[in-house]
Amino acid sequence: MGSTFSAPLKKKGYTVLLEMARAPIVYLGASLVVRRSAVRQDPKPYEAMLKGTLDAIRFFMKPENKSASMKSIARVLRLQRQEDAENGYNAMVAAYNIDLKVKPEGVKKIHSILARTNPKLQTFKPETIIDDSLIQKILASGY
């Protein structure tokens, strides 16, 4: 459960076992997964999506955009109380950053968990699926 929804539960006396955004654990949150052949065939829509994501995170992280960001959080999550939207905003600021590079350690952790239940994955090397060439291209361009 995300911090936005767990904050009211904390106030009611529930115990938080772990806040992933604050924990020193490398993990995969939201990820873009696409076939390499699709990116090679037409990289423009994927590059545009990554740039849009980067723009959104940059907008969100600017203190002068806090009010607009909180309104969006409240609307999308259907939060009635301003305090809940602010808790969500603070949790997201703690969780997100503009570093869109893939974390190989996170991919390896997910792989090790999935390989326990799917023996076919035990021979698979997780680093073979990581391709951050579009992200590198965007960063190299100074975007």
Counting DSSP E segments of at least 2 residues, the number of strands comes to 0
Count of structural domains = 1
**With helices defined by DSSP (H or I, 4 residues minimum), what is the helix count?**
7
The succession of helices and strands, N to C, reads HHHHHHH
Major sheet description: none
Termini Cα gap:
33 Å
Features:
0% strand; 7 helices; mainly alpha; 57% helix; 143 residues; flat
Describe the protein's architecture and organization:
There is one protein chain. The chain has 143 residues and is mostly helical. It has one domain (3-140). The chain is built from 7 helices and no strands. The chain has helices spanning 3-11, 36-41, 44-61, 66-77, 82-95, 104-117, 133-140. α1 (3-11) packs across α5 and α4 (66-77) packs across α5. The model has no long low-confidence stretch (mean pLDDT 86).
Helix and strand layout, with pairings?
Blueprint: H1 3-11, H2 36-41, H3 44-61, H4 66-77, H5 82-95, H6 104-117, H7 133-140
